[in-house]
């Protein structure tokens, strides 16, 4: 018979709840949960960077054949090395070397389970008691979620819409102190669709060097540009400041579910090795999981043999979608787009709540858009996500 007076000694980890509340996945689950079950219209999923959900995007036959070949070879059925399969690391280094003034080697490459794990590795490796990190606002909220879990203090610098969402470099110097360890740069931009110039990135690198901090360069949308500005990898400035470059095949090859990414030490001066960051990266991977070995085995063929016409088709489709989205937004009185997107798969839109009835903020707008129109989008400012989600629930309960 159950003893109802028993005092159990375990309870849920509240840190996970707080971190999840400011994650894209957590908020997406909330918004999707507000879809009307009586609405027979197909849901329009615009809330995350998963192009594979749309028929106009499909990966290259080269990538598909590479996976088949890797499986049939029977060479990739076992455990992978901690840092990744050597042939995959070499191939990634060669792929990235096309855009760099110096040469990466396989020793600079760490294969990860998508770019999300690369973020986890980077933040864990740089963390120490009292440390803080500089994050862009608007930005990719997984950084806030993971920093919250790691007890890594976050300080936000603004991106400037009037200047194409460039970094407010002056603000960086004002925010940083002796406990600041890194700055995150997302280029091409998520969620702003911005693409930074060589000169702007060099200015960021020189500022980081002045402050004595490293740069985490999130380049998961690398080369997905369709405006006048070409993609410039932050690793070009590795001789100025140490750079942890993060990327994956998820977006450019339209396969986010394959979960194959990388973390790269773009650091020809060896500062990351001397400071112990490299050892910390390996240490994290030793207690973490790996991407599937057969996908790692397929990477050389994917990176080396995919034809340019596949990439060109993806870029044309993204540009057409960006143009239509930007033109459509201009026709809606309560919406403003400060800058037409020139890269990635996102657009940042300003919502004028004063022109709407019974809408309190952007989260409220997203929830009601899902319920009334079966369209899924996400609010941009989620740094205070837990408070806002609780406030939404309280308003919803009161109305019921």
Automatic annotation (TrEMBL):
GO cellular component terms, A-Z: cytosol
| The keyword Electron transport is annotated on this UniProt entry | no
Give a yes or no for keyword ATP-binding in this entry: no
**What highest taxon heads this organism's lineage?**
Eukaryota
Kindly list the cofactors needed: pyridoxal 5'-phosphate
Q: Which residue positions does N6-(pyridoxal phosphate)lysine occur at?
A: 251
In terms of InterPro entries, this protein maps to: Aminotransferase_I/II_large, NHTrfase_class1_PyrdxlP-BS, PyrdxlP-dep_Trfase, PyrdxlP-dep_Trfase_major, PyrdxlP-dep_Trfase_small, TyrNic_aminoTrfase
According to the entry, every stretch annotated as the Aminotransferase class I/classII large domain falls at 43-379
Give the GO terms filed under biological process for this record: L-tyrosine catabolic process
Q: What molecular functions are annotated in GO for this chain?
A: L-tyrosine-2-oxoglutarate transaminase activity; pyridoxal phosphate binding
* Entry keyword set: Pyridoxal phosphate
Return the similarity comment: Belongs to the class-I pyridoxal-phosphate-dependent aminotransferase family.
Please state what the protein is called. Answer: Aminotransferase class I/classII large domain-containing protein
Q: Which organism is it from?
A: Gossypium tomentosum
Mind giving the lineage of the organism this protein is from? Eukaryota, Viridiplantae, Streptophyta, Embryophyta, Tracheophyta
